[in-house]
Amino acid sequence: MSKPTTIQAAARVTSSAIVPATATDTLLVGLDWGTNLSSLHAARGTSTELLVQEQIPTIVGYAQENILDGVLPGDARVLFGKQAQKHRQHMRLVRPLQGGVIADREAAKEFARHLRTRLPDNAGEIRAVIGMPASSDLAARENARAAVQGVFQKVIFVPEPFLAALGYRDDDRLNDSEYQDPVLNSLYVDIGAGSTDVCIVQGRYPTVDDQLSAPFAGDAVDQIILDAAQIAYPDAGLTLAKVREVKEKYSCVMGDEGQQPAIATVMVGGKPMKIDLTAQIAAGCAALLQKTFEMTSELVGRADPDSVSELLQNVIVTGGGSLIRGFGVALQTKLLEEGFENPRVRVLGQGYKEYVARGALKTARQAQDRHWQNILG
Ligand SMILES: Nc1ncnc2c1ncn2[C@@H]1O[C@H](COP(=O)(O)OP(=O)(O)OP(=O)(O)O)[C@@H](O)[C@H]1O
Ligand SMILES: [Mg+2]
User: Is residue 83 domain-resident?
Assistant: First the structure.
């Protein structure tokens, strides 16, 4: 057997009771660096009190050239997150990540520096556990390491589904009589902006065989809706941003009986016009459900036959795509119809974004000195 990697070694400490060697003045950070939205948690080494708990849209805005003084706050050259979105008219917006990994290194560095400004000034050493898509390779980790150089002094990269399971662990224990520890045996379905990732978590770090990833998620749904809407309403001047806004309000996979009419107001020649996007949104959401179902069935098919009945009891859907109305029930129904025995699908809901960061902070608290990778510079 090959020697365990630092990451694998760190995975084991999360389930044991080893006392970590973290100093009191060290700042521990849990980071879910999402394509769409990032979640940042931070606490002092030995404290349980959260000093930082913040969600920041993963967007960097660069001021347009020739912009007049006083237009952007503080005449900033670069803005981030909500501020960048707010001033989008005067900025070139860049998403540093695509499909969960860094796509624009400069913007990623800027974004990491921005994260530092959200942490306390007198932080001392900063150690961060950072979630990575389960499918990410060495190059993706190298890019992430380079981006956070000078921001964090030590890091551990951990697959996101594992962190989500760890963050979610114990949450339902009290109000769920059939509670099963998600870290021990669960199937995670994470529907993000850039990718859908399905991953089996069985008490150890997921390997390549434990997961499937496809570049088909919220962004692809937006494109499907936009393409269909442009055929129906060629003059409406629809944009991806507008489509996404309407989708997030009316997304649904419940068929005709559950679907509310999705009426959007667009401006045509300066005048408001109402258009009906119900059918286009339903088609986009149905395509995502079908893709997710296919990936889930394929992965369940790969699971160890001894663990599969318990695994099917712990199918957990997370990510922004999981907020589509009726998604959990529809996925469960499809799995049942496919012949899987008694599947149970749960949806993490609005708070989904916190679980990865929370799991990352738990890992940071429990990691030992030797698990951390130094970042020089
Ligand atoms: N209510 C909703 N209905 C449908 N889709 C939604 C809803 N809310 C958010 N989304 C979609 O979820 C996606 C964002 O999900 P999430 O925040 O999990 O992405 P991410 O973690 O940043 O991306 P990735 O995991 O690909 O790196 C976007 O495409 C967004 O439009
Ligand atoms: Mg994500």
Answer: yes
Ligand having the closest approach to the CA of 131:
2
Whether 115 is covered by a domain: the verdict is no
For residues 68 and 66, what is the distance between their CA atoms, to the nearest angstrom?
6
Residue 195 CA to ligand 2 center (angstroms) comes to: 8
Evaluate: CB of 294 within 6 angstroms of ligand 1: no
Q: Ligand 1, atom 2: nearest CA belongs to which residue? A: 248
Choosing from 36, 95, 213, 354 the residue with most ligand 1 atoms within 8 A of its CB, the one to mutate for a pocket test is: 36
Residue 101: inside a domain, yes or no? no
What global pTM score does this model have?
A: 0.83
Ramachandran angles phi, psi of 288, nearest 5°? -70, -40
**pLDDT of 134:** 75
Q: Looking at the domain assignment, is residue 87 inside a domain?
A: yes
Q: What is the domain count for the chain?
A: 1
pLDDT at 260 (0 to 100): 87
How would you label 189-198 residue by residue, b for 16+ Cβ within 10 Å and e otherwise? bbbbbbbbbb
Residues across the chain:
377
- pLDDT higher than threshold 70 for residue 369: yes
Atom of ligand 1 nearest to the CA of 221: 29
Spell out the alpha helix ranges (H) of 251-277: 255-258
The residue segments making up the domain with residue 87 are: 59-94
Q: Quick check: 105 pLDDT over 60?
A: yes
Indicate whether residue 37 lines ligand 1 (CB < 6 A): yes
Which tokens belong to 179? 């509670």
36 lines ligand 1 (CB under 6 A): yes
Mean pLDDT (the chain) is 89
Alpha helices (H) in the chain, listed in sequence order:
6-14, 81-86, 105-117, 138-147, 160-168, 218-232, 240-250, 255-258, 278-302, 308-312, 327-338, 352-366
Q: Tell whether ligand 1 has an atom less than 6 A from the beta carbon of residue 320.
A: yes
On whether the CB atoms of residues 347 and 328 are closer than 8 A, the answer is yes
Residue range 31-65, pLDDT digits in tens: 999 999 999 999 998 788 999 999 999 999 999 99
Say how far apart CA 278 and CA 165 lie, in whole Å.
34
Q: What digits encode the pLDDT tens for the residues 175-191?
A: 666 667 888 899 999 99
Residues linked to residue 93 through DSSP beta bridges, in sequence order = 61
